[in-house]
Amino acid sequence: MQNIHIEVVHDLVCSWCPIGYANLQRALHNLNIKAELHFLPFELNPQMGAKGEDINQHLAQRYGWSEKKQTEYRQHLLQVASNAGVEMDFSKRSHYFNTLNGHKIMHWCESQNKQQAMNERLIYAYFKEGLNIGDTEVLLKLVKELGLDSVAAKDALNSQALSRQIKAKQKRVQQLALNSVPAFVFNHNTLVSGSNSVEYFEQVLTSFNERSA
User: Fold this and answer.
1) What does the DSSP assignment read for the chain?
2) Residue 65: left if φ>0, alpha if ψ -120 to 50, beta else—which one?
3) Residue ranges of the domains in the chain?
4) N or C: which end of the chain has fewer CB atoms below 10 A?
């Protein structure tokens, strides 16, 4: 079977995105299928300021969620995340942040063949460590951790060329007309929305296997 090309549409502060990513990875492993993953940016809160917003206050203001509703939702989320092997620590993850710079770093890491590694590091940095992944210094520190050139990364963040490239990716996402993330585009033309289970992803991947047989 040929490698499957998969575009992962995500936001770096989206709670369900790392769950969907983890379940997809497990399905690929279970079926022994190789995939070429590329990440596309989707900003849930593009107007958010640099300091971010308290999650509880944000959910109350945006959705009108009561404290009880938030507690119930969080308990469910943590259970699903645990089942997927995704660590979340809400004692540290207290804020939503603007993710544009994070998406820019993800895009730059793609040119360094480290995009998937950066995605996984950002998941841990935000959901487990509670770091502000929109902050330039935080991002450059993560770049160093991956053994990449932080000076080159900083230059890229400030470049017009990278901004144009991000806008091109955002246009690609707009064409998909998504209402939420995560979403996954298989071989450029099959869209699957939602975090989904390992079993569901296995069914999707098996269907591609059968078509190429």
Assistant:
1) -PPEEEEEEE-TT-TTHHHHHHHHHHHHHHHT--EEEEEEE--S-TT--TT-EEHHHHHHHHH---HHHHHHHHHHHHHHHHHHT----TTT--EE---HHHHHHHHHHHHTT-HHHHHHHHHIIIIIT---TT-HHHHHHHHHHTT--HHHHHHHHT-HHHHHHHHHHHHHHHHHT-SSS-EEEETTTEEEES---HHHHHHHHHHHHHHH-
2) beta
3) 4-212
4) C
> How far is it, in rounded angstroms, from Cα 125 to Cα 27?
24
Query: What's the topology of domain 4-212?
Result: Glutaredoxin (3.40.30)
What averages of pLDDT result for each successive group of 10 residues across the chain (213 residues)?
Answer: 86 98 97 95 95 96 95 97 97 97 98 98 98 97 98 97 97 93 94 96 86 60
